[in-house]
Amino acid sequence: MKPEYISSIDYINSLTFEYIETYSLQRGERFEKQREQEIKILQKLRRRNKSLNFEELKQVKGLEELYGTTQYLLDDKGNFHIFSEKIAAFSATDNEVINLVRILQTKIREIPAWMCAPIYRDAIVFYDKNKKIISALNVCLSCEYIAINRHRNINADEETYKQLRQFFIDCGHKIEDKNL
User: Fold this and answer.
1) What does the alpha-carbon distance between residue 137 and residue 108 come to, in Å, rounded to a whole number?
2) What long-range pairs does 88-92 form, CB within 8 A, spacing at least 24?
3) What pLDDT, in 10s, does the model give residues 50-94?
4) Which of 13, 28, 88, 157 is surrounded by the most beta carbons within 10 Å?
5) By C-alpha distance, which of 21, 62, 72 is closest to 39?
6) Are 21 and 86 in contact (CB under 8 A)?
């Protein structure tokens, strides 16, 4: 399936939502320790490749899905990433959300084009009045990339990422150095 790209402006203008939640994922000491341990297990199992039993094959598949592909806040079944943490929640009428909408409506002049794979560590989930998820934005501030999922991507201006970085910091996200 060919990826779809839409502008951040069209994206945010198409949403009708009651509130948002912000999430941090794939960061922190717990994540780093578990990741390090599980990658060692995966490497060990891969070396034994031909002598793996059914349970070990399932373990390899699960670890490869978790560490061998781009991770999103929500999986294909709508489950939250095991290394995600809700940081903040705001009503659609709160100043923080009004600011977020303004950020995503930034005119697109220059779309960043880094040559790295995104590692989504910050996300925003939009909910309707029935507390149903209507959309989730996965944000990689390192390579300046936004995606809804593996097939739907958002084009945004360079300035949008600077403002999103500050938005997440103001929400309480522990943002790493931009060069990481």
Assistant:
1) 18
2) 88/21, 88/22, 88/171, 88/172, 89/19, 89/20, 89/21, 89/22, 90/19, 90/20, 91/18, 91/19, 92/17, 92/18, 92/19, 92/20
3) 888 889 888 888 888 777 778 999 998 999 999 999 999 999 999
4) 157
5) 62
6) yes
Q: Considering the entire predicted model, what is its pTM?
A: 0.87
**Measured distance CA(45)–CA(75) in Å, rounded:** 25
pLDDT in tens, 94-147: 999 999 999 999 999 999 887 788 999 999 999 999 999 999 999 999 999 999
Spatial CA neighbour of 141 closest among 32, 29, 25: 25
Q: CA 59, CA 161: separation in Å to the nearest integer?
A: 36
Average pLDDT over residues 19-25: 97
